[in-house]
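Hi there. Long-time user, first ticket. I'm pasting a complex I've been working with (about 975 residues overall). I'd like to know whether the download I got is complete or cut off, because the file seemed smaller than I expected. Thanks.
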Amino acid sequence: MSETLLDIKNLHVWFKVYGGVLKVLNGVNFNVKFGEKVGLVGEAGCGKTTTMKALLRILPNLALIPEGDIFVRGKNILKLSSIELADLRGRGLSMIFQDPTSALNPVFTIGQQLYDIIKYSAGSSGQKVANKKNVALSALHEARLPDPERMLDSYPIQLSGGMRQRVCIAFAIATARDLLIADEPTTNLDVTIQDQVLRLIRDLVEKKGSSLILITHSLGLARETTERVYVMYAGNMIEMADTSLLFKKPLHPYTQGLLASVPRLSGGGFAEGIPGRIPDYRNPPPGCRFAPRCQYAFAPCTKAMPPLIDAGDGHQVACYLYQNGQEDRRNA
Amino acid sequence: MRLGPFILRRLALSIFVLFGLSILIFSIARVVPGDPARMALGPRTPVEVVERLRQQMYLDKPLLQQYGLWLRDVVTHGNLGDSLLTRRPVKQDIQEFFPATLELVGLTAIFIIIAGISLGVLSARYANTWVDKVVRLFSYLGIVTPAFAWAVILMLLFCFVWHLFPSYGRLTEGVIPPVTITGMYTVDSLLNGQLGLFWDAFVHLILPAIALALPPMSQAARITRSSMADNQNKDCIASMIAYGVPNRVVTRKYLLKPSLISPITVMGMDIAATFGYAFMVEKIFGFPGLARYGIQVMLVKDINAIVGVVMVLGVVFITLNIVVDIIVVYLDPRIRLLGRSS
Amino acid sequence: MMTERMFTSNAIENPWVRTLDSLKKTGYKFSRNWLSVLGLVMVVIIVFLAVFAPYVAPYPQHAGKFVDFKNKNQPPSWQHLMGTDTIGRDILSRIIFAFRNALLMAIVVLAISVPFGMLTGLTAGYYSGTWFDTVIMRVTDVFISIPPIILALSIAAMLKATLMNAMIAVTVSWWPWYTRITYSLASSIKNEYYVQAAELTGASKIYILFREILPNCSSSLLTKMALDVGWVTLVGAALSFVGLGEQPPKPALGTMIAEGVERMPAQWWIALFPALAIMFVVLGFNLFGDGIRDVLSPEEA
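Hi, the file is complete. Here it is re-exported in full:
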């Protein structure tokens, strides 16, 4: 049983805004073991990126964490001092963002940014890493980028979108880390590039033995790339299972709705969507946040958010339909 | 586009602008009602004398030719004509007064850049804490108080309530200025090794410079702060932090460089504008500079002098703009790579 | 047991209610920041004083031809809250009347320079890349190469010293900045999808300019206009400081400061109060303009 690399327990994150508080994260539970490939699926605005930002402790000033813990390699990073934090970060993680244009600082060359990342990869004191240039060049080469020498002196503006994303991957390659977080890595790319980039990510993770958190709203992507998937909705993890199990037997009404919404090439008919919208985070529903949209909602759904319970085979779901090991109540 | 051709392009553009400016100011000068020759000589001069002066000033020739001749005079001899006010060549007036204002604006610029950016960075670093709030409050007051108001306030406080600084002139009465190399007393006295003299010139500069610097400095601090705050939340910064680059490196390098683009541009414009507000401060402090001279000649409609002053200032501004452009291009390579700003 | 949930629509049908609602939201947003409210209060005071000057000023006749040598150079007292000047006129009253001229100048200057600058910038921005754009922007560049205050001074100095000429001078110096800002906004907005959509459906150029592009520039322009009232007043004061613009005995803030500077430090109030008055105007419109900017710019998520 491999160790847990990351364990987020009951995380709440609020944003202070004009006229109130946005209660974005509502008790998130999420964990990743060493070497595991975990997917995080959810629609836009459900809190995926906020969770990651909380993990990196780069939430904006107007955010606060009223409750919850984040354990990285056993240490609660919410309670660390900034020195210890810097040290932890130095041995920390790689991250690939959704928009490669904004992920690369436009006024520095690729080389300058890459060198700094390599330089500080050994810890916050920035020990001398011999042959920074070679490491950089080989990373760029592994990311299938043409002409790595020239790439080092180029500015992000001079590259295409696909190349920029591959540069971001090269950053990850250059610094073999325990954890790679890929936040919608292919969303902004052409379909033809998407596949290449995804393959690069997979190779990278497998070769270095890193863990992977793949954040996406594409179910197909999650299915291809991950071993275990979390489904997130409006600030909560509402379902979690091994990937194949989730797709075969989705339990939560939301997940079922998601899978049903995927248009099929065969078998005719239009895909059904899920009626309604994500809740207003300023006044979220008191109980389960999906209840207003759920066709199976009943009394307990409006009282309190259902916790993640075990539904067998490592499958967890947060829904009152499955409480106490009872069977699906839908036919009641 | 590489850096070299970019600069050349800007220079060419600037010369064009300079031309445009000269045409503009020349037209205005000639269009204004009144006979310059008559005004120069006074109402009682006999007509023939006035006529002769008119011919000398090319006033009888068509406008276009007048411009051409004037331009020739300026470019070949630096001859801007004579001042009605001082009765000597405008060139001489400018040589005497320009360095004084240059000194003043120079010191002001130093204050603006150093204090403005430092305060802005400080404010951004401690965003939303009391440090930030205090700096923002003072910078707000700084912005809305015009330079001449500061001049009055500072003079009252530091010259008359607390007798710390002199309130008049470039040097104390009776002190002999240093040998002229640049015309700027502070620089010249340093070059001549006269430290006491340097100090005297310097204390005469401090209050006017501070008065002039406070509004633009506050503006620069404000813009620096908001620029840094905007950039703080960008993915590229988050990325660096995620990879473990220490906060101090991220702030000083990756956050600062893109954030300086806005403030530097605005500071450039503000430093140019300082020449305009300088005249009031010069008047208040009795500082004999180009700005004060400029106003005096404008009031008496001393056409040659006005044109001369405007052209000199035009050259200064254009130079300033080029310098700012070069710095901005260094800070943001996208501009020269794309041919336009992001 | 099936429970049905109707998803209530947030859209309010009645347009009147919608307008009132958005006005209330605007007011709420504005009032979140006490500084903006302060600015609004200051602006209201200034406008009130300017409009009702003859009725509000304690000694309205001092704003015209008036001398009272007996009372000259009085320090601030209960009869004269800001003291009197060198020929015995009440400074407070003169400041109130000077506000009148200042606001008048600001209104006239902006009323002319803003539409003109905006139109040129709008058309140049929309047709960017053509000769039209090049010509307009080069001309603008020439004007912009000089800080507005210097240009205004130079132009005003060439003309006879009257309020009207001062206004002309400032207007001429001011319009290029609106051209520049509208130009950069327009040239980026014209590439937005909704503009292209309008073009494709055959909308006339006028429609596109005024109904698609302009409204999206309006927030920046309105903010700038609010701030500019303060700055125009400042430039106007600079002009009158030198003796251009409103001539004595009519009161002007800059003139009063110039007179006061001669009398420093003994009769410090003659220079200080007009200076503080200018600060008040600039501060008030700055705070107000900031409030406008907060209201008009989209809320951060």
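A couple of notes from our side: Chain C has eleven helices and no strands. Confidence is low (pLDDT under 50) at residues 1-12 of chain C.
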